[in-house]
Amino acid sequence: MLGGSRQAGDTLDLMPSSTPTPTPIAYTEAEIAGVTFDGNGLVPAIIQETGTGTVLMMGWMNEASLRRTLETGRTWFWSRSRKEYWCKGETSGDRQYVRGAAYDCDADCLLFEVEQEGRGACHTGERSCFFRAFGSGADPGPR
Amino acid sequence: MLGGSRQAGDTLDLMPSSTPTPTPIAYTEAEIAGVTFDGNGLVPAIIQETGTGTVLMMGWMNEASLRRTLETGRTWFWSRSRKEYWCKGETSGDRQYVRGAAYDCDADCLLFEVEQEGRGACHTGERSCFFRAFGSGADPGPR
What we know:
The structure is a homodimer.
Chain A: H1 11-14, H2 29-34, E1 43-49, E2 55-61, H3 63-72, E3 76-79, E4 84-87, E5 96-103, E6 110-116, E7 132-133
Parallel strand pairs in A: 1-6
Antiparallel strand pairs in A: 1-2, 3-4, 5-6
């Protein structure tokens, strides 16, 4: 076969066409240095779904997980309870591919626009973690 | 004039038709008791614009400001630097009228959908506080 033609068995043919591609986000050292981390070295990161605008979840990042998120194009958080880094969807398959990254006027909160793979962002199976409204009569306790 | 007819000079006629109406949000004591406040008694509150889905800002609430927000239908925060309650837009006129209120799966983050009055949510004059993207070359320092 000629030129750019693909053959059956090429890796490209085996990948589902819906698999998103991780894309690194450019950043400067001045931007990282400008971020205000709290007393525990953390900054809240809001995760919003690209296209729909749905707020999916909020997680915490330290400087290393922020860098890893920007460099890999996947969302990396710091778990305050488990005291370890975690990459969203690494276990569940519900991965997040970063499509935009911003910081607020005080540089003490981050906002990531992501392509959400799989069922969604919440460990309960809901697409968004914010599925319970005040006054809805839903079980109020943490799950 | 008869029945429900309005007369010129009625209060209703003097109000600009674009002024939003604050609407209290129903809640239960169990819902408030279920919210997890941090060691400083605070919980992050994400503010999203209704309709557009734009994430406008993130602020901190304690239990009292959360109750006040739900009861008045306007956003009330706790300022960690000034150590005082503040109602968004009370000085600037850029008020926020709550149209929805939710809490996440861990009940340690809140999400409010608001109708944003005036210029926007940011004290810089931008509509959203998240107007600076990583890699955009914008001044990274806090304003």
